[in-house]
Amino acid sequence: MFLSYHAVLVFLITGMAMVCTPMILGVLFRPRNPYPAKTMAYECAEDPVGDAQIRFDMRFYSAALIFIIFDVEIAFMFPWALVFQGFHDRWLALAEGVAFIAILFLGLVYVWVKGDVDWVKTFRHRRRVQG
Amino acid sequence: MGILNNALPDIAPVRAVDAAVGWGRGSSLWPMTFGIACCAIEMMAVYAATFDLDRFGAGVPRATPRQSDLIIVPGTVNAKMAVRVRRLWDQMAEPRYVIAMGACVCGGGPYVKWGYNTVKGVHKIIPVDIFVPGCPPRPEALMDGILKLRENVTREAVFARREATARILDARGG
Amino acid sequence: MNEQQLHAKLLASGLPGIGELDTSARDPFVRVDAGSIVAVLTFLRDDHDCRMEMLHNLTAVERPDAIELVYHVCSLARHHALTVKLSCPRPDGGNHDTWIPEVPSVAGVYSAANWHEREQWDLLGVRFAGHPDHRRILLPEEWIGHPLRKDYVYPTWHDGIPLELDAIPLYEPGGGQAAAEAAAASAAGAAGAAAKAPRKAGEPLFQPPAPLSTRPLAPGGKTTDTPASELGSH
């Protein structure tokens, strides 16, 4: 039933083998010699103080989120280009692609104006946000 | 200790694998960015453009001992610093190598008689593979030391259990 | 103003404890008593004609009969300088273990004195009364002793780190099983062993040497009874 996807199966097996083989070989070949002075937390050779888990700044999260959205958008451009290559109505395909980009572009404009792409919000943005 | 380390007989295929692994390890000795005193300036000169160390594969200094397999110790080691040097060496992952760079590190240097605070040679606290004397050694001298270490590492037996090693290991009790 | 005029101004200020101007040295200096050093330096700093706003050195000299503190003050506005010396006489039998001279701290007058006084406490053992942060600055906090005293005994170890120059040779000239064993166990042997007899990968490269008290000594090597503290015991 799924015989036409034989290429996918080969790909799947090869991919898993390429991941698992170095891991297994590593377990066999790498030296393993743990002792307390080696496994202690690294803090520039001083005695570690404080917690290892600290609170992160929210800006990392929002920057990563914005990046992911546009990265996925770019990723969608490739299949769109391939699938609609021989499409009977070229202008419809182009309009759909442009509409997709335009909607996300509105989101970019919003984030930009609100100052969320600046790491440090300038006074101008701060006043607008607080006002 | 990995399962296969020094466990296989000393025959040609194992030696070939050893040579391959040795070539890989020797060509990518990643040092740790660790500079204590004046010799560190010459060490930086080795990393930089004129005496470029990157062409030997060793020009990727890692900031953390976990990712480095070579620690070059440049500069006088005081009692305060010796504790940290020992801890850094402990925190490196095997296989790890040490180059002692400079007169202070090789045997005390100018502080050998009146240094109340200095360790007369870092070999008292960590095992050293290569000593590079000089005050400071010229960048070419340090590079020579790194290349000698590279020779040693390339010829190291990773899987083969050679006779001399076997005798020493048996004498130590395995 | 040259040093004679500065000295005259000091005498005219009416502060007690100001001695003669000694011009025998390259930098003429004024001897001051310990009790009035703070007042003298404050006067030098605040007086309109002196305006010595910068203390550019505070050091100490150990002599057989005293420890002398030397204060180099200078004026950037008036382009003159003066050296002030304070002498703490050594009591009978005063040595490194028994005598810590004490003087008032001038860290309140010049903030540069803060670290300079910490250095003198660290290295020469001079106490400064009223210092805001009286602790060692260069040596480790738990160091015992003041190394720049003339009768300081150098330690052989500190915090498990051996500090003395080894009397033990790193290798035995000549061959033999004992030499091979010793070579395999010592640090230099590890370097040679890596080239000749490759070590077992994954095994610790270095068996730490035994504590000094149990190691065999070379003929003529001195012995120390160091409390054993094992290095790298794992």
Keyphrases for this structure?
B: 174 residues, mainly alpha, 3-stranded parallel β-sheet, 6 helices, globular, C: 234 residues, alpha/beta, elongated
Describe the overall structure:
The complex is a heterotrimer of chains A (131), B (174) and C (234). Chain A has 131 residues and is an all-alpha fold. Chain A is flat and about 70 Å long. In chain A, α3 packs antiparallel against α4. Chain A has helices at 6-29, 36-39, 58-83, 90-114, 123-130. Chain B has helices at residues 12-26, 39-47, 79-91, 103-107, 139-154, 163-172; strands at residues 70-74, 97-101, 130-132. Chain B has a 3-stranded parallel β-sheet. The longest helix of chain B is centred in the C-terminal third of the chain and has 16 residues, at 139-154. The termini of chain B are close together. By secondary structure, chain C is an alpha/beta fold. Chain C has 5 helices and 9 strands, in the order αββαββββαβββαα. A 5-stranded mixed β-sheet of chain C has the order 1-2-5-4-3, with helices on one face. In chain C, strands 6-7 form a two-stranded parallel ribbon. Chain C has a two-stranded antiparallel ribbon with strand order 8-9. In chain C, β4 (66-75) and β5 form a beta hairpin. The model of chain C is unreliable at 167-179, 187-199 and 215-234 (pLDDT under 50). Chains in contact: A-B, A-C, B-C. Chain B binds chain C through residues 1-2, 5-6, 79-80, 82-83, 86, 90, 94-96, 108, 112-113, 116-121, 123-131, 151-152, 155-158, 162, 164-165, 167-169, 171-172, and chain C through 139-140, 143, 147, 152, 154-155, 158-166, 170, 181, 184, 187-188, 190-191, 193-203, 205-207, 209, 231-232.
